Amino acid sequence: MGCVHGKCCSKYPSSSDGDSDHHREMRPYINKHILTQRSLELVPVPSHNFNLQYSILTQHGYYPDTVERENQDSFCVKIQVQGNPNVHFFGVFDGHGQYGAQCSNFVKDRLVEILSNDPTLLDDPLKAYTSAFLATNSELHDSEIDDTMSGTTAITVLVVGDTLYVANVGDSRAVIARKDGNQILAEDLSQDQTPFRKDEYDRVKLCGARVLSVDQVEGLKDPNIQNWGDEESQGGDPPRLWVPNGMYPGTAFTRSVGDGTAEKIGVIAVPEVSIVQLTPDHQFFVVASDGVFEFLRSQIVVNMAAAYTDPRDACAAIAGESYKLWLENENRTDDITIIIVQIKDLSNMGAGATDSGIDYRPMIMRSVKGTHDMSSVSESETYASVRSGLSDIQQSCQHSISMNRSAAIVVPSPMRQRPLQLVGHSSYGCGLA
């Protein structure tokens, strides 16, 4: 959910789909997929003797008023970050505004490049992550792309051995599936950053933002009522951010990369980072744009993904269902991008794992005069999220896993008949979605 007019504030230029290189160490796992004629890839993590098997799908959104509008989602998979066979990166970037596609593609390229060039990455992944986001944001401001009213959200997962570092800016989402007896449970790895969250609401209000739904801005509802219920019941007309005396920018998220105007009222590029210690109970994780989660809860997405042995089929099924629900509830669909990464052959390492299989490391990230550092806390303190703070807020302003594989139904775009694009990816697969 992006700017006030969805993701189409104005007409967009068309662009061609990108492609990707193939790394010589990537190994095709099975035959090419029936829908895409691409091979499924298997990525080894030798330090802990397990594998990651993944697939990516992006579905162009349908906007009846701008039928030729380009897909503003982009994605990036970089295998062997810094040449390390145990470090891998997965990211989805959801652009918005007139130049949203340019913003998302700029960020998916530069973010992973900055991480790859940071010598402190493996010593201090949390600090490196935050520094990379802030540097990318600054570079986007200084680039030739007009990000005054455009930008991108970002949901990324950095795999370092058997540990996941999940950095989120915006309202896309990462979810991990954990086996619990006969059930597969969905556990969110990120928390949507929107005005529905009281902490984010309070922060942007202090930065001068007006927080109102579209109906409130247009005078159809009382603007003094600052309670919008929950996101699932009010998703159609959510609270948005507006400048004090204007009808813009109308963002439904409180963090983003870019968005120079929104930055002045508290929309920041500082990521929230969570840390997960993998265990054999973890089956797979999903990284997806909010086009997937607008009408599908995390548990439903995990249930659907668990119903397929092949992640390509799972991607197609989830994207197809999301697309269908968009058309049932709106006269358009959002762009939809999803990465499913299966965790294969992970043995019981035991070290650092909690009973739930998630080890939220006892660290918090804080900001001191605009700089970000790490501070250790007591081992008895456990955090469900490692959140980046700001020192100067005004300045920074149930299915069975073993089901037989079957081809998923693909929902074509109305009037366009453009099929889903299912992408088998590569060592530096930072694709144009």
UniProtKB/TrEMBL annotation:
The keyword Manganese applies. Belongs to the PP2C family. This is protein-serine/threonine phosphatase. Its cofactor is Mn(2+); Mg(2+). It comes from the Eukaryota. PROSITE patterns: PPM_1 (PS01032), PPM_2 (PS51746). Keywords: Hydrolase, Magnesium, Manganese, Metal-binding, Protein phosphatase. The gene is LOC18603380. Residues 53-343 form the PPM-type phosphatase domain. It catalyses: O-phospho-L-seryl-[protein] + H2O = L-seryl-[protein] + phosphate; O-phospho-L-threonyl-[protein] + H2O = L-threonyl-[protein] + phosphate.
